[in-house]
Amino acid sequence: MALLQKNVLTLKQCLRIMSGMLEGLAFLHEAQGNKCTVVHRDIKSKNILLKSVESANEKEVALTACIADFGLAAVFTSPQIDEQVTGQVGTFRYMSPEVLEGATEFTVPAFQRIDVYAMALVMWEVLSRTCVSEDDDQTDVPPYKQPFEEYTSAYPSLGEMRDVVVNRKLRPEFRPEVSKHPVGGAVEYTIRDMWHTIADGRITASLARERINAMNGCDSQGSEGYHSSSDHNRKVSMSSVVGGDGLCIPAEVSVNSNCFPETDEFQRER
């Protein structure tokens, strides 16, 4: 996503890009009808393509995103995975803690959570180059950097990333102005739920999509996305107001799921 290196995004552009990425990932992970579950296994910013689309706002370029490069992707027709399909593939910088440790469960949900972790890092990259308030100066947004860039070499080894992500439990940091912003803070909350140290504590791509679509003022049920019946027990309750920039600002977000219990352990490890 070379765009991030030279351009600062508006919040609307940021949310639209994230929505497109999550629509794609949720669709891949979906098993519906004759469509099998697909896991990408190499989600990173270089594998996200952007294109401009028509926008009612002539002052702003509308961008949408899609996922590319399926060279490492795997297609599954059952919940269990043959152990010959190795879990330790992809780009070291975007590998989840369990992949770096070589402790991946050989189930489809486990492989999906690996994709979700990597997508969280890409979303952080997008948010890090976003001017969250219309009143802010775009020059205040720091230059682009890769996830963990301040902790690793330019091309980190597996050992380097294991030390940073697993041993030191580090994650990329958010700018204070992002965390304090109603929408920016809600996006940060979702990203943190996606890169959870404990794989079972991560939300699904479908739930992340629903949250971002809600912030973007979109009715996700009317979008081009695909919705799983398994999402019915993962409810996002949002009491929203419309901000001055036309975005939906979640006043409250509560996630109820038997699959992702809000235990003290999960909260400490986030």
UniProtKB/TrEMBL annotation:
One of its GO terms (cellular component) is receptor complex. InterPro entries: Kinase-like_dom_sf, Prot_kinase_dom, Ser/Thr_kinase_AS, TGFB_receptor. Keywords: ATP-binding, Kinase, Membrane, Nucleotide-binding, Receptor, Serine/threonine-protein kinase, Signal, Transferase, Transmembrane, Transmembrane helix. PROSITE patterns: PROTEIN_KINASE_DOM, PROTEIN_KINASE_ST. Its main location: membrane. Residues 1-216 form the Protein kinase domain. It comes from the Eukaryota. SUPFAM superfamilies: Protein kinase-like (PK-like) (SSF56112). Its EC number is 2.7.11.30. It is a single-pass type I membrane protein. Belongs to the protein kinase superfamily. TKL Ser/Thr protein kinase family. TGFB receptor subfamily. This is receptor protein serine/threonine kinase. It comes from Oesophagostomum dentatum (Nodular worm).
